[in-house]
Amino acid sequence: MIVIGVGNRFQGDDAVGIAVIERLGESVTCFESDGDPSSLIVLFGADPEVIVVDAMVSGLVPGTVTTTEVSLDQDSSLRIPLRSRSSTHGFGVFEALELARILGTIPQRLTVIGIEGADFSTGAGLSPALETAVERVADLILRLAAEETV
To answer: Residue 92's pLDDT is what?
Structure first.
């Protein structure tokens, strides 16, 4: 299993994906991504099980955690709930996933964990609600990693 933390550490709550992988430390194999589609596509193909953590903006309460299992339909199209497509990036994780699908680099199991952000100001730190969410999400990933090894 690998975990990809997506974000910009200098844009307030956009750094939440990076904060999660920093919290995980060396307990799981982690990668940091600024959301560049080409690097995400390479990482998607790096392991059969991938977890992506990213900030999102969908109108939910800041700190809300949304988990989405991404899978392929029988016709090889992505099955992603529409409400999950709320990235903080112009070209987001789900668009990179669509490109990865076309290129055949979708992992067997892919989970996207979105954390609702509030403040994306340059130079701002994480909002208090997101600090709490970082701990919850890191604990969730550690539980999933433990289940994988059983």
So the answer is: 65
Main-chain phi, psi angles of 119, to 5 degrees: -125, 115
Q: Give me the torsion for CA of 79, 81, 87, 89, rounded to 10°.
A: 30
For domain 2-149, the question of CATH label 3.40.50.1450 is answered with: yes
Coil, strand, or helix at residue 46?
coil
Nearest to 147 by CA among 80, 51, 55: 51
Q: What is the dihedral of CA 62, 63, 69, 70, to 10 degrees?
A: 50
Domain coordinates in residue numbering, the chain:
2-149
- HSE-up of residue 69 (Cα within 13 Å, Cβ side): 6
More confident residue, 108 or 11: 11
pTM over the 0.70 mark: yes
Closest by Cα among 49, 31, 48 to 40: 31
CB 30 within 8 Å of CB 46: no
| pLDDT tens digits, one per residue of 58-105 | 899 999 999 988 865 544 554 444 444 444 445 567 777 777 777 877
